[in-house]
Amino acid sequence: MSTQRNDVAAVQAGRELPADRTPVGVWTGTVTHDDQTDEFTISFTADGGVTLLTPVSSGSGTWTPTDTGYRYTIKESFHPGVGLPGYVTVNVDAERIGTTYKGSGPCTIHRPDGEVVHTTFAEVTAEQQSPEGRDLLAGPGRPAPLDVAKAALIAAAQAADADTGRRVQPGVIEALDAAGFPAWFTPERWGGSPRGYAELTRSVVTLGRACPSSAWLASLFAFATRYVACLPEQAQAEVWAEGPGARVAAVVKPLGQATPADGGWRLSGSWTYVSGVEYADWALLAGPAPAGPPSAGGTPPLFFLVPRQDFSYEDTWHPLGMRGTGSHTLTVDDVFVPAHRTCLREDAMKGRPAGVPAGPPAAPPVPTLAVNGLTFVAPALGAALGALAAAAPGISRTPTGPREASGQAYQVAYARAAGEIDAAQLLLERIAETADSGRLDPALVRRSRRDASLALEMLTGAVDALLRTGGTRAQEEGQPLQRFWRDVRSVASHAVVQFEPAALDYTRGLAA
To answer: Which of the residues 31, 120, 144, 429 has an alpha carbon 20 to 30 A from that of 495?
Structure first.
């Protein structure tokens, strides 16, 4: 490739294009062929290189100037498991006009052994996203090897300050970035290195033992990426233009008002309890708020992707626990959201990625209900383990005074709490292993939802018991046991992890 690019550079030196006609930069667009239209992202570099990404393929090649514009040639390989032949050779003659380019040319589809399957003619149009070209396949900004232990140490050092100041410090956010949490589920084609749910759960629990608020933000930033991958190609390119670690704050409850506009929507309103909004690069907001019961019809809920410069937040987070999450109220005032930054909320909640061809996917999508409990309960498990460690010294001491008669009772309570925490951990591990295995039939999804809410009830009861073993001293401000207790109690109030609806869903499923 380097020799080929040197030859291309020599051609370019003899026929340079004006700056406003060169293709150098990153572009997103559509290609139409055989009565179908597909999305793509393409990058041209000054040395004559071209790299291409689509939802089902990736490739590289070269470009050279022509008398009317430029020509590029790409070998585009399909991703494994998408049910398509081996690769496509693309030859396009194009011309740039301002921030748009259009082109056309023949494309040939080959089997892996080179046999020609089909030849077609393609027409492309694209809009420039960045004037700086880069190798889309090199994964710039790929996170360093996971270092959760270091992040936990940094988080632990400021846990008390995060609680009193209602804010996790920027140094912790940087440590979460370095550990790869915001990039956990970023697709490889955008420079990510997707990891599994079991590893994420273990990592969030480790953080939770140090600082539950930091663990909460790590978990939500990681899981929000799953929804971004369900947006159209152009939106994904915008979110991950600078690398795979963009931080996204997601709100799944439909709120606000959305009015159709030419090419998109006008969005206004307030979204409450947006964890990490202070540090978010993007917000993914569900809306509009329902105007009546579902039977009344109206606009189905959408996800709206909004960049940082288009939203603000109000300091409204003054809770009992999880104070450091900064879950303030996000506000948007008559912001235009282009259509390519939206998708049906239902599709995203079911894990349906945009641009995937019809037919069985390489791996089944993971619906939100299958893993939503991990998002919220894993930080609570870490907090409960932190509470267990904080309560241990008091249990090991021989009680005196009024507490002497309750010594054995406290030891029994501690043992029961430890067992309940262990049992809750086993339930969460089973949820994560089920998601990683791809076994996602409705019965297992209902079981995972039940297990997560049941685990949270067990953790809540366990930390209640642990706080009682600590007596009055454990409830003093600054004592870690009362902080862990408040954090678990705060998670226990979350609407999506209540046991009753999960239990009814599970039992009704048995009768279906």
So the answer is: 429
